[in-house]
Write a structure and sequence with these properties.
- 29% of the residues lie in helices and 30% in strands.
- The chain has four helices and five strands, in the order βαβαβααββ.
- It is α+β, with helices and mostly antiparallel strands.
- A five-stranded mixed beta sheet has the order 3-1-2-4-5.
């Protein structure tokens, strides 16, 4: 059975710097260009959930509960951070949007219990966004 999907948007500002410590500065500049410098983004995170509609409330998710989870586990951690320095998980990983999605999913997936996490989307710029449907999903 198909259920409705509801999407909630969150905003946070964070900085990051791409770089590979194994590579020379020349190689880093060749691969990452100006992103080898510390820079920031005003990210938009979209969290989409799905599930049966509660007949009493008419909702498929309690939004205050969802907000508490996403804000405490993701937004409050990332907002005004330098991702690769401030978030332990990124100490040996590039702070890319692709990796951010993996980290975000892991932070909230098992905390959302009254519905199913369907998709997360991270908007990095006006022309770049990434979607993730979880491990093993297509």
């Amino acid at each position: 059975m198909n259920y409705p999907i509801i999407t909630k948007r969150y905003h946070f500002c964070a900085s990051h710097k791409y770089g590979n410590d194994v590579w020379s500065e020349e190689k880093n500049l060749e691969v990452f260009g100006k992103d080898y410098n510390t820079h920031g983004h005003n990210y938009v995170l979209e969290v989409s959930v799905t599930g049966p509609i509660d007949p009493g409330s008419g909702w498929l998710v309690d939004l205050p509960t969802l907000n508490k989870i996403v804000k405490s586990k993701v937004v409050d951690v990332l907002d005004h951070s330098q991702i690769e320095k401030d978030v332990e998980w990124f100490k040996d990983k590039q702070p890319s949007s692709e990796n951010l999605l993996l980290w975000i999913w892991d932070q909230i997936f098992d905390k959302i219990t009254d519905c199913k996490l369907h998709r997360i989307r991270l908007v990095e710029t006006h022309s770049i966004f990434n979607d993730y449907y979880g491990p093993g999903e297509e």
